[in-house]
Amino acid sequence: MDQNPWNFPTAEELATALRAGETTSAELTDEAITRIERHDKAINAICVPDFDRARAAAHAADRARARGEDRPLLGIPVTVKESYDIAGLPTTWGMPTHRTYVPAEDAVQVSRLRAAGAVLLGKTNVPLSLQDVQSFNEIYGTTNNPWDHGRTSGGSSGGSAAALALGFGALSIGSDIGGSLRTPAHFCGVYAHKPTLGLAASRGMVPPTAQALPVESDLAVVGPMARTARDLTLLLDVMAGPDPLTHGVAYDVTLPPARHERLGDFRVLVLDEHPLIATGAAVRAGVDRVADALADAGARVERHTPLLPDLTEAALVYAQLHFSGAAAGFPDEAYEYFRTRAAGLSADDHSLDAARLRGMVFSHRDWIRANHRRELHRHGWRQLFGAFDAVVCPVTPTPAFPHDHDPDLMARRLDIDGVEYPYLDQLVWAGLATMPGLPATAVPAGRSPEGLPVGVQIVGPMFEDRTPLRLAELLEERIGGFRAPGA
Question: Count of domains in the chain?
Fold first, then answer.
């Protein structure tokens, strides 16, 4: 293997080397563990190491290969977001009251990783209850950005993104409802894919002590993270498919191929402005870099279309649906508090803060009405994707920002080129794909003047996940992709 300490092989390259007998899983696993032990003190990405079982799994993978077995991830070291159940390891979601909870069964995606032959190095850090754009909690502390330790790695899959950026395994799995895959990838300079809603089973990605049931989530998905776009596809193929306890009884998944194979054949809508929040100069430059690469390759690039669903209404519906689900588990006294606050809102207050507050106390009737508006937006997106193959837009308005641990998220502010905005308003770009359930691939698009990674997301049609993934691969070839912080 390459001896450059910052030239991390891709999962595809590792699989090729393992098949050729150029290395062993035991060697790869020891290298990954050594790297974690050397570099993670400054980053704090791996919150629950599982090195003894990883070494045993690596030796088992080498024995399996010696017997002639070959599976998609056989012998490849990976990490897993702390929120997934792994039998024998704690699942806390950063909640101090559950610091000792240890599930007895693996999450369905952990089982799929094992079945594919992956070696699990351990778990990666998350924010409290997975509800932040940063990754810190009282149990495991703060995960720093590998490019600037004074800044966040993102959330809620921030530990996974930081781990990938520093070579702590070749792949990771995370989850996404408010950009929790895409934002950490954007902040840390790696790749992530938010699958179409319902494409990948999520059973066992549940809060501590909750029973792992095959529930169909609203908005939330599980998905892959990697250092290359091709590796995302490799891992998505392992993760995709319905829960074997429900829809999996009746059908398998066969994703359609990408709409095009050449960059010049794509029809792409490029967005860099949102009516509710500014776009920082560094992010706008990243979007422009991608747009220029597409145009130079002969792709049809447009900046405006009357087919685009209304972004203001989309952000408001997303805020209502998101916070309706997030508040469902609040204790009764908290619900009553927010209900009183919502009742005091002015009828003409159409801010995102008001939408979030109203969503927290939605009645079922309110939710049905919001869901109907979502279906209208889905129909609008279907029409748009008749004229375009993908949409390129920001993941968030800024690169990674300094750590901000104010416990009141509503009081926090986000600085966008010297102007302050409500902290949670940055979720509008994530919601663009999340609310209608569209697939979205986060890809590196350069660096800010301060040297921080900047990414964009490529949004595609429902269940046509291979289209944004293929576009991500072609862009990686055209403009480059991941670069390690120490390179």
Answer: 1
* Domain with 17 in it: 11-262
Omega into 202 within 30° of 0, i.e. cis?
Answer: no
Q: By the 8 A CB rule, do 174 and 225 touch?
A: yes
Positive or negative, the CA dihedral 39, 41, 45, 48 is positive
* Neighbouring residues of 204: CB distance < 8 A, sequence distance ≥ 6: 84, 85, 103, 105, 106, 107, 108, 109, 110, 212
Give the separation between CA 18 and CA 34, rounded to whole angstroms.
Answer: 19
Structural domain includes residue 207: yes
Q: pLDDT tens-digit profile of 45-69? A: 999 999 999 999 999 999 999 999 9
Q: Determine the Cα angle at 188 with ends 187 and 190, to 5°.
A: 115
**DSSP state for residue 397 in the 8-state scheme:** S
Length of the chain: 487
| pTM listed for this prediction | 0.98
Catalytic residues: 81, 156, 180
Q: What are the strands, taking DSSP E only, across 260-401?
A: 267-270, 300-302, 390-394
Residue 112 lies in a domain: yes
φ/ψ of residue 27, rounded to 5: -65, -45
**Amino acid, single-letter form, for residue 335:** Y
* DSSP per position, 237-282: HHHBB--TTTGGGT----PPPPS-SSGGG-EEEE---BTTB---HH
Give the pair of three-digit tokens for residue 441.
């691939």
Dist CA 265 CA 169 (whole Å): 34
Residues 436-452 have pLDDT tens digits of 999 999 999 999 999 99
Closest CA to 171 of 109, 260, 214: 109
Within 8 A by CB and 6+ apart from 472, the residues are 191, 229, 232, 441, 443, 458
CATH code, domain with 198: 3.90.1300.10
Strands 440-447 and 191-194: antiparallel
